[in-house]
Amino acid sequence: MKGAAAGQPGQVILVDYPEPVAQEQDIILSTTACGVCATDVKMVQKGAPDTRFALGHELTGKVIKASSTQVWKVGQRVAVAPYLPCDQCYYCKHGQPALCTHLYEISILPGGLVERVLVPSELARRGMFALPDELSDELAALAEPLGCVIKGLEDSHLQAGDSLVVIGDGPMGQLAAAAGKALGCSIVIMAGMTAHRLATAQGAFADRTVDISKDNLKDVVSEYTEKRGADVVLVTVSSGETLADGIGLVRPGGWVNSFAGVPDGTHIELDVRKLHYQQYHLTGSSGLAPHNMKKALELLHSNKVDFSRVITGRFVFPQVAEAVAYMEQRVGLKAMVTFS
Ligand SMILES: [Zn+2]
Ligand SMILES: [Zn+2]
Questions:
Q1: 70 pLDDT band (50/70/90 cuts)?
Q2: Whose atoms come closest to the Cα of 95: which ligand?
Q3: Do both 230 and 300 map to the same domain?
Q4: Ligand 2 centroid to 152 CA: how many Å?
Q5: Which end of the chain has the least Cβ crowding within 10 Å, N or C?
Q6: Which residues contact 214 (CB under 8 A, 6 or more apart)?
Q7: Are strands 128-130 and 116-119 parallel, antiparallel or unpaired?
Q8: What's the CA-to-centroid distance between 85 and ligand 2, angstroms?
């Protein structure tokens, strides 16, 4: 079977993977859709020394092999988490499964941008979810990135009625604004610099979009929050400077979340007096746990906002190189690969 992997730096290669072999309780999926993530783009840019693992981790599939003793049936449509917390370690027992020390030990194999995927039994049991008939494969394939965003908002103690500022207008920023809307935020402000991306969010995900190359974000946030600042600021831009700007937008007692991965050695200067007296919270979020993905599927199914606006590039497997290039060129938002 064919799968897409990172080859030499800048190259996507098609690899002949052996057909997945399932042990008794494992599941095999025929992949139906898989989103391309910034992580995939980074892996392609860097190049990968070995191709054992394929690209892609935002997938849906159809069960083609299941054991008779399981709840799963052949033909069922599912979304599956790419990896699974162990449920046993210190962090899992402290309710922080995304920090699990064994997080990547149980995972889909060899990846998501492949024709067929092995789902180990434990992952099928705790990290795989049946799709409702009304939810399309490509929309359900947003459950993984949306789950990461939901985790970020939960880590930031977001409540219905809160004001949310999302910095960054890329796919994750869009999903964060959309999730904020769906979760009942009273006001969602999105800041970015790309006109077509801000236009996607305006009215659909964000009540107010701000082009920071033209307008002063702090003034806008102040205007919309009775000068308090935002309850939650989620920073989806990979920059220390942007995180520092985000801290300038939060209300006393609010939350700032460093959501984007940043390069090694990224530091900021922190006004410690402000931290002490204004008692705001500074946190970071990375990854997700199965319950975040379950919540994401609920939001996608609820139709409260039109999440499909985030999918702007559609490709059919094996056009993975084209999908990665589409993400790299930033001409749209999310690239989605479907399998015929
Ligand atoms: Zn991803
Ligand atoms: Zn664990």
A1: confident
A2: 2
A3: no
A4: 19
A5: C
A6: none
A7: unpaired
A8: 5
